[in-house]
């Protein structure tokens, strides 16, 4: 089989999935996974990717689709490989890697998600407070009350059940996708041909290498994959693996289409010097555009995009953290899963609320520290499992495993290099 045929087969679904056809359930999950991936980081993504120049950005854009789809499909396959029908990520890790190694992987998985929830709790409070003061010209309520109400509202959506969660995602993500597309089109008249520097092999490869972690986390919806995979197993039974792959493929298409259009539109509207200035000011691309153009459209849409993006991503990450913490509490304490779930929710509520009240300035460091773990769990661990777990043996052929392992290893090494530097 030719390499092009292999790529086509990997990026398409199994023929058996056509037996059930596309359903509203599938659309809702595409929207929820899209919402999990598109967090506050999208507002900084054009700056982080655009600073390297146009050609590294083009290469990263080409790699983004295969990296996102294949890695998340691998993680979903890992969850679905359990012999137990309702096993979550923690239980699957213990089943395949043993109790001690599985527990360690599960703890790292939780710690990779939880700091991001703290970040979003602070970001959500700051965004709403800033909007009330600057756009609505009203006095914001006490920060303790405001942050408590916002965090409680987000968690209440999750407690209302899967259907309410999916409806909340649809309510938030459809406007987000429309606004992103509209803003990207709005910026087209300001596009200019980018500066094309002379090609330098070593510098070019270094730039692409350091851009890979940004790409991984800009499109990551790993936090929701365990819950997503279990829902598909309940919904589709033996077809769960194929249906999951189809939903993840369509999620990737939506992500790459909307997000990269937004990134390119912003990068082509700003010069390298302006991108560097925005990075130095530590502001989002929309805030920078609003500051240099005094454009009322961007000033209005900026806070709205930030609020929707943070809220939708909060829900997706809470889904993963809740499931993981529930199992981590239940095993050593002997509590039932229902009681462990309630205790875990209470712990996370007060922790997120506390972080939002304190408003710490170390959030970037926390996010960076959780980064390598996400990359290892999303890219490296599922590939290792394919070659260790008999239930995954049928996935050992093809080019995808080598591609995921290579790009994941490069992303992890780039993150570690950035931390050490």
UniProtKB/TrEMBL annotation:
Transmembrane segments: 29-47, 53-71, 104-124, 144-161, 168-188, 208-231, 252-276, 296-321, 342-363, 369-387, 399-420
One Pfam match: Trp_Tyr_perm
Keywords recorded for this protein, A-Z: Cell inner membrane, Cell membrane, Membrane, Transmembrane, Transmembrane helix, Transport
Protein origin, superkingdom: Bacteria
Main location: membrane
Claim: Cell membrane is one of the keywords in the record: yes
UniProt subcellular location: Cell inner membrane
Signal peptide residue numbers: none
Membrane protein topology class: Multi-pass membrane protein
Name used for this protein in its record: Aromatic amino acid transport family protein
Record organism: Aeromonas bivalvium
């Amino acid at each position: 089989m030719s390499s092009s045929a292999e790529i086509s087969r990997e990026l398409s679904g199994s023929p058996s999935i056509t037996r059930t056809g596309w359903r509203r359930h599938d659309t809702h999950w595409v929207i929820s996974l899209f919402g999990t991936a598109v967090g506050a980081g999208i507002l900084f993504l054009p700056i982080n990717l655009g600073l390297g120049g146009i050609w590294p950005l083009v290469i990263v854009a080409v790699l983004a689709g295969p990296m996102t789809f294949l890695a998340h499909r691998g993680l979903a396959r890992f969850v679905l490989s359990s012999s137990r029908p309702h096993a979550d990520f923690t239980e699957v890790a213990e089943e395949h890697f043993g109790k001690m190694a599985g527990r360690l992987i599960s703890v790292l998985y939780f710690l990779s998600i939880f700091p991001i929830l703290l970040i979003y709790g602070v970001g959500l409070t700051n965004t709403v407070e800033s909007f009330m003061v600057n756009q609505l010209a009203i006095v914001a309520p006490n920060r303790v009350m405001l942050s408590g109400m916002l965090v409680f509202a987000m968690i209440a959506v999750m407690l209302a059940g899967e259907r309410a969660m999916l409806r909340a995602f649809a309510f938030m993500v459809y406007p987000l996708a429309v606004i992103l597309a509209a803003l990207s089109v709005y910026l087209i008249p300001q596009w200019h041909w980018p500066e094309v520097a002379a090609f330098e092999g070593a510098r070019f490869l270094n730039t692409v290498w350091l851009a890979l972690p940004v790409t991984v986390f800009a499109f990551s919806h790993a936090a929701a994959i365990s819950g997503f995979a279990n829902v598909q197993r309940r919904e589709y039974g033996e077809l769960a693996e194929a249906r999951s792959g189809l939903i993840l493929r369509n999620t990737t298409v939506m992500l790459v289409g909307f997000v990269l259009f937004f990134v390119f539109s912003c990068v082509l509207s700003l010069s390298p010097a302006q991108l560097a200035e925005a990075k130095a000011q530590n502001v989002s691309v929309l805030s920078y555009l609003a500051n240099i153009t005094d454009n009322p459209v961007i000033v209005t849409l900026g806070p709205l995009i930030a609020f929707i993006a943070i809220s939708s991503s909060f829900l997706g990450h809470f889904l993963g953290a809740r499931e993981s913490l529930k199992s981590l509490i239940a095993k050593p304490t002997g509590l039932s899963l229902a009681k462990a779930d309630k205790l875990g929710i209470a712990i996370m509520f007060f922790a997120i609320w506390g972080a939002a009240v304190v408003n710490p300035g170390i959030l970037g460091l926390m996010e960076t520290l959780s980064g390598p773990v996400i990359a290892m769990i999303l890219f490296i661990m599922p590939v290792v499992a394919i070659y260790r777990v008999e239930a995954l043996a049928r996935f050992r052929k093809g080019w995808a495993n080598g591609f995921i392992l290579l790009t994941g290893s490069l992303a992890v090494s780039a993150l570690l290099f950035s931390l050490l530097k």
